[in-house]
Design the sequence.
């Protein structure tokens, strides 16, 4: 269940994907076991943590290089 909790905190996997990743086949059984271990459902547990995308930082130089308009080099229309 600790691995499942880490996946819920640090990935964008849905509950079914987390269930399969930790080796269980029934989402219902997974949810029951998770609730027994952590006192809340996996979905509610995830709400306490920011999205992994919100945690990702992109350096300004990379952002500017990627978002810069590209000029056409082959001049074909």
Sequence:
């Amino acid at each position: 269940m600790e691995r499942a909790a880490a996946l819920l905190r640090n990935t964008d996997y849905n509950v079914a994907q987390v269930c399969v990743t930790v080796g269980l086949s029934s989402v219902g059984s997974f949810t029951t076991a998770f609730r027994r271990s952590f006192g809340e459902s996996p979905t509610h547990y995830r709400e306490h943590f920011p999205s992994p995308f919100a945690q990702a930082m992109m350096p300004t130089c990379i952002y500017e290089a990627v978002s810069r308009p590209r000029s056409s080099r082959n001049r074909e229309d």
